[in-house]
Amino acid sequence: MMLARPVSLLPVRSRSQLGRFIRLPERLYRADPHYVPPLRAERRAALTPRGNPFFGHAEAAFWLAVRGGRVVGRISAQHDRLGRDRDLAQFGMLAAIDDSEVFAALLGAAEDWARTRGFARIQGPFSLSINEEAGLLIDGFDTPPMLMMPHDPAYAGPRLAALGYGRAQDLLAYLCDASAALPPAAAAIVARGLPANVTLRPMRRESLAADVAALVTIFNEAWSENWGFVPITADEVAHMAKAMRPLLHERLVWFAEVDGVPGAFGLCLPNLNEAIRDLSGRLLPFGWAKLLWRLKRGTVQTARVPLMGVSRRHAGTLTGRLLALHVVEALRREAAAMGIQAVEMSWVLAGNAPMRHLAEAVGGRAYKTYRVYEKSLAS
After folding, report:
1. What DSSP assignment string belongs to 118-164?
2. Rg (CA), the chain
């Protein structure tokens, strides 16, 4: 009987190693019809300090798992100094063959990195931040992921559990039929309109900086008390806006203003994954042309709402619930007018009853579940 070759860990320190790190999931998951290779150039920028403002308040390390000269897994370990839990490190970017030794080596590297820095717990996956891709897919493997949402093999969750990782939190994705009429109860509320002091409006490109500032303020206020909250910085939002400029449409960013002050917002983005599924992660030589044509011609039929929120002074009030419903309905209506057939609202904390109620009130159904795992690092 032949013994399996040992697994070695290779720290990612060079440009070529980072390239292997980025391309690995394309090889591992190419037989999965629902896996969408991300754009390699975008991933390289996201994983380098010069290309991602995340590194302005965080540190990270990356490893490749190698067996017999072949890369069989990857992982990151990171810590975000803006997070509230000072004893908590994170892992992410997890991809590996279905092998217990490979998973043990990868998670062991992340755990050792966290221990040497004095952290008592490790949590993930986050790639790299909770404000980027969060959680491991544990239910809903039969459809492709939306923009900035992960897709994982079914074996990954059990492999983490076998290494002592338990559930820290579940995140839900809701899918809404954009062309369907609102359910009667929500339709009746929307039909009654808004109070005279409330204005619903789309994003204004001529005052984009002010709208971005309002969005950051509302988001950080709205989510500040929620599990896992890490504030989005102005630099990160500006970076995201620049990267997502081809996707941004003023009719898919809405604000509700109360007495002229922004009190709620919602952001919807066409699903980039739908447009890049057949590009194999490459924009050259013809990928850019295909991508821009698909976005310009409006052939993308799915979208995602990655950010929304109600300001703290309206949170939990009847006015706040009304603002949120009207913002979501405006996004749904405008998306449908642009030919979008389905909109994902994600992610939603499993324990966030108000957000789940809102998603269900507008006809959404929970169709994917992502799990954040946690492990104590006590000896």
Report:
1. T-SEEEE-EES-TTSEESEEEE-TTSPPPTT-----TTHHHHHHHTT
2. 21
Closest CA to 360 of 149, 145, 182: 182
- Measured distance CA(324)–CA(263) in Å, rounded: 9
Measured between alpha carbons, how far is 312 from 264 in angstroms, rounded to an integer? 10
CA distance 84 to 322: 31
Q: Would you state the structure tokens that stand for residue 28, as one six-digit string?
A: 């591992």
Residues 101-119 pLDDT 10s: 999 999 999 999 999 999 9
> Residue 1 pLDDT more than 50?
no
Question: Is the pTM of the predicted complex or chain greater than 0.90?
Answer: yes
- Whole-Å CA distances, 326 to 71, 79, 199, 314, 333: 49, 37, 10, 14, 10
Query: What is the per-residue burial (b if ≥16 Cβ within 10 Å, else e) of 114-137?
Result: beeeebebbbbbbbbbbbbbbbbb
User: Taking Cα atoms as reference points, which of 377, 373, 379 lies closest to residue 160?
Assistant: 373
Residue 254 near residue 269, CB atoms below 8 Å? no
- Report all structural domains of the chain as residue ranges with CATH numbers, in order of start: 8-167 (3.40.630.30), 176-373 (3.40.630.30)
Instruction: Report the C-alpha gap between 271 and 254 in whole angstroms.
Output: 18
Can you say whether residue 68 is alpha, beta or left, with left for phi > 0 and alpha for psi between -120 and 50 degrees? left
Residue 348 near residue 324, CB atoms below 8 Å: no
Apex CA 270: angle with CA 264 and CA 273, to 5°? 130
Q: What is the spatial distance between Cα 76 and Cα 363, in angstroms, rounded to a whole number? A: 37
Nearest to 135 by CA among 228, 21, 63, 220: 228
Q: How far apart are CA 123 and CA 121, in angstroms?
A: 7
The string of pLDDT tens digits covering residues 156-204 is 999 999 999 999 999 999 999 999 989 999 999 999 999 999 999 999 8
Share of the chain above pLDDT 90, in %: 73
- 304 and 343 in contact (C-beta within 8 Å)? yes
Distances (CA, A) of 114 to 101, 109, 360, 373, 375: 20, 9, 39, 15, 11
